[in-house]
Specification:
Length: 520
């Protein structure tokens, strides 16, 4: 007779495989103090990993005396990535995001790559583990950091250009159709100038822009870049004051999130009259623009705005990541069923120039709902770290620098007063007085420009911080949504970026971009 014995499984234990863990450390210089710090970090991680029964130490990867701005300059980091690709590592420990990659754009790229390999990272300082939260939330944090870094790097360049605007020393880097740039001078291109005059004459005769376009394209008249003429190109020429010989600077600007905008009074504009030779008289220029406005009014199109700007919630807000153009609303038909889709304007006209496919409006609605619910659930992972970063992003240092500049301005003012007194008492020669006065004036101007730049940065950061705090308050009180809400969309989202037919990004008013995958 068979004997059957029931085994008590509680007496058995399942052996769980240990997690393969590595650590990455880095110092930027090779001096003695930094090398001591590197050794301390190495010992810390070795002890930490070996004392955890669930972990198995793979290796300690360390770069010494190497800057963290670019990942391809750090051999140990590249070796770490190579070992991850070979399946040797499950988890990476590192001190902070800045130690892993000071250039946070590279950090974002590395995190995505490692997560695709199934490797997660734990940042000790930020207490962030990419395995303990949804990947979209983690990437959103890093994206915010990357964008803020890019903004700060670009401010100096934009500020310098604005100073040249004020002084009238800015040089046109790309003159419009009808002109060439020769020996640092804007010179009329006679052949193209005849086309410009033809366009203005046609507009003054009441010829529509589309008819002008058709005629020029049929005749094979080349554009500035040897492309096809379009209605917007014609209108751009007619509205360009440079054909009168004047130059209006800062008609458009790039904001802190790299969005190109028409200057509606947000920033000062600067008019330089008689900057170069005119092709069109001021009278013809004004008359042609009046004709364009009249033609637009006949079609119920507001001048200076998009025709359908306020007609639909997504109008003018969807941007193609491939070509930069906006999306248009279309009605598609599939198996006798109609649905709304949004298509790239460039793809509609010239498919060879942009391959981006359309996106159904219902998919955008669903992606927005998902994004909102994720933020409701995880705003503390996305918005609160961003808020803390903005609150501590060198504002104290900027205020301190402004205080030092104010002190230097007072000193300069006193020096100038002393100089004037010496001159009036006859202790200084006029030539010496003028030379020193010029030097002090230049120093004073430079200090004021530096102060202006710092104040601009502080104010810009303050506005972004206010928007982030408003969103935090909104999501603390909000509830999960199950339908698209146009009011919430307009209040929170600045624009939608289409990366592919399966992925879009919601660029929020606070500056961060959250990506969502969508189904076709």
């Amino acid at each position: 007779m068979r004997k059957i014995t029931t085994l008590d499984m509680t007496t058995f234990s399942v052996v769980k495989p240990k997690q393969k863990v590595a650590a990455y450390i880095r110092v930027s210089t090779s001096n003695e103090e930094q090398l001591i710090s590197l050794e301390a970090q190495r010992r810390h991680y070795k002890t930490l990993i070996e004392n955890n029964d669930e972990w198995q130490l793979v290796d300690i990867y360390s770069d010494e005396g190497i800057t963290g701005t670019k990942k391809d300059r750090r051999p140990e980091l590249l070796r770490l990535i190579s070992d991850c690709e070979k399946g040797k590592i499950d988890l990476i420990l590192t001190k902070s995001i800045s130690r892993f990659a000071r250039n946070t754009i590279d950090c974002l790229e590395l995190v995505r790559k490692l997560m695709d390999l199934g490797v997660h990272i734990f940042f000790e300082k930020e207490n962030i583990n990419t395995n303990s939260m949804e990947s979209e939330l983690m990437l959103s944090i890093l994206s915010s950091l990357a964008e803020n870094e890019s903004v700060s790097l670009s401010e100096n360049s934009k500020w310098s250009i604005r100073q040249r605007f004020k002084r009238g020393t800015y040089k046109l880097s790309y003159p419009p159709y009808g002109y060439d740039y020769i020996d640092e001078q804007v010179i009329v291109n006679e052949e193209q100038a005849q086309v410009v005059k033809r366009i203005f004459n046609s507009v003054l005769k009441g010829v529509g822009t589309e008819r002008i376009v058709r005629q020029l394209n049929e005749e094979g008249v080349p554009t500035k870049r040897n492309g096809n003429w379009t209605g917007s190109t014609i209108r751009g020429i007619v509205k360009n004051e440079k054909y009168t010989g004047d130059v209006l600077l800062q008609k458009t600007f790039t904001d802190e999130h790299f969005n190109r905008k028409v200057n509606q009074g947000e920033l000062d504009q600067y008019l330089i009259e008689n900057h170069h030779e005119a092709i069109i008289t001021h009278a013809d220029f004004e008359a042609a623009n009046q004709m364009i406005e009249y033609q637009a009014s006949q079609k119920n199109v507001a001048v200076g705005s998009r025709k359908y700007l306020n007609r639909y919630p997504f109008s003018g807000k969807i941007e193609c990541a491939e070509c930069g153009d906006t999306f248009k609303r279309r009605i598609h038909t599939s198996t006798h069923k109609k649905y709304i889709a949004w298509c790239c304007s460039t793809h509609i006209k010239y498919r060879d120039e942009c391959s981006m496919l359309f996106i159904r409006e219902e998919r955008i609605h669903q992606a927005f709902i998902t994004m909102m619910n994720k933020l409701k659930f995880g705003y503390s992972y996305v918005l609160i770290p961003l808020s803390k970063q903005l609150e501590t992003s060198n504002q104290d240092e900027n205020y301190q620098m402004i205080s030092e500049i104010e002190t230097q301005l007072e000193v300069t003012k006193d020096e100038l007063n002393t100089l004037i007194q010496l001159m009036t008492k006859g202790f200084l020669e006029p030539a010496i007085f003028n030379q020193q006065k010029i030097e002090l004036s230049q120093k004073n101007m430079k200090l004021k420009e530096e102060r202006e730049q710092l104040l601009y940065l502080i104010n810009d950061s303050s506005n972004q911080l206010s928007e982030v705090k408003r969103l935090i308050k909104y999501f603390k009180q909000g509830i999960f949504i199950d339908a698209f809400d146009e009011e919430s969309f307009q209040d929170i989202v600045k624009k939608i970026i289409v990366y592919s037919p399966n992925e879009i990004g919601f660029h929020l008013n606070c500056g961060t971009t959250l990506r969502e995958r969508i189904d076709r």
